[in-house]
C-alpha cells in the first residue's frame, strides 16, 4: 500500500505554468486560423458562383447551337431565368417565349440542360450577341430576378469574387464575359439589350 502511495507521489503532472502556456498557444492558433477558415469558406462560395456562371454560359451556347443547327444565328439578346420550388421560369428578350417558336425551343433546351444543376432560389441574366453568350450574371441566394445594377469586385483578398448591387440590395454573384470587373449594368426597356459600361474608379 505504501509503495502505491509512493509511486503516485513520484508521478509527474503538468504544472500550472505549463497548462497556462499550452492554453495561450491554443488561443493564439485559434486567433490566427479562424479568420483564415472564414476566408477559405467565402472564397469557395465565390468560386462556386464563378463556376456556375461559366456553366450557364456554356449551356446556353450549346442550347442555341443545337436548336439553330448551324442555320441563321439566333436574334436573341437576353435570357433571364429564376428557379423557385424546383420550377424554372425563363424569359427571352423580356417575355415568355411563344409556343412553337424557335425561342421556345431554345428555352426548353436551356431548361432541360440547367434544371437539374440550378439550385432553388437561383437566378441568372445572360447577355447574347450574334447568337452567342457574351456575359452572365448568376446568383443563388434568393429567387429575385436580376435587374439593372452595378457589378463590383468584392472587398477582401479574394480571387474572381464579385458583388452585384441593385437598388439597396447587394449580393455575391458569379459573372462571366463582359460583366467581369467593375461595370454598370443596364437593360434597355425596348430592345432588352443588356449593356455593361465600365465604371471609372
Overview of this structure, please?
- By secondary structure, this protein is α+β, with helices and mostly antiparallel strands.
- The chain is built from three helices and nine strands.
- It has helices at residues 2-10, 16-68, 102-114; strands at residues 78-84, 87-92, 122-129, 132-139, 149-153, 162-166, 169-177, 183-187, 194-198.
- Strands 2-1-3-4-7-6-5-8-9 form a nine-stranded antiparallel β-sheet, covered by helices on one side.
- The longest helix has 53 residues, at 16-68.
- The chain starts with a helix and ends with a strand.
- The mean pLDDT is 84.
What keyword list fits this structure?
3 helices; 201 residues; 37% helix; alpha+beta
Q: What's this entry about, in short?
A:
This protein is of the alpha+beta class.
Mean pLDDT: 84
Gyration radius (Cα, Å) is 27 Å
Distance between the termini: 82 Å
What share of the residues lie within helices? 25-40%
In spatial order, strands of the major sheet run 2-1-3-4-7-6-5-8-9
Number of helices: 3
Instruction: Provide the succession of SSEs.
Output: HHEEHEEEEEEE
Number of strands: 9
Amino acid at each position: 500500500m505504501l509503495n502505491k502511495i509512493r509511486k503516485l507521489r513520484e508521478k509527474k503532472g503538468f504544472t500550472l505554468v505549463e497548462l497556462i502556456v499550452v492554453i495561450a498557444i491554443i488561443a493564439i492558433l485559434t486567433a490566427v486560423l479562424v479568420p483564415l477558415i472564414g476566408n477559405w469558406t467565402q472564397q469557395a462560395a465565390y468560386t462556386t458562383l464563378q463556376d456556375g456562371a461559366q456553366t450557364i454560359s456554356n449551356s446556353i451556347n450549346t442550347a442555341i447551337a443545337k436548336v439553330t443547327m448551324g442555320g441563321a444565328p439566333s436574334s436573341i439578346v437576353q435570357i433571364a431565368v429564376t428557379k423557385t420550388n424546383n420550377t424554372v421560369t425563363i424569359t427571352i428578350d423580356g417575355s415568355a417565349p411563344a409556343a412553337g417558336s424557335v425561342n421556345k425551343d431554345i428555352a426548353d433546351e436551356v431548361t432541360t440542360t440547367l434544371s437539374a444543376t440550378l439550385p432553388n432560389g437561383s437566378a441568372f441574366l445572360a447577355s447574347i450577341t450574334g447568337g452567342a453568350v457574351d456575359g452572365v450574371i448568376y446568383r443563388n441566394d434568393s429567387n429575385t430576378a436580376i435587374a439593372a445594377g452595378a457589378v463590383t469586385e468584392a472587398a477582401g483578398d479574394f480571387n474572381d469574387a464579385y458583388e452585384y448591387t441593385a437598388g439597396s440590395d447587394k449580393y455575391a454573384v458569379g459573372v462571366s464575359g463582359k460583366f467581369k470587373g467593375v461595370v454598370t449594368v443596364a437593360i434597355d426597356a425596348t430592345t432588352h439589350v443588356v449593356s455593361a459600361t465600365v465604371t471609372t474608379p
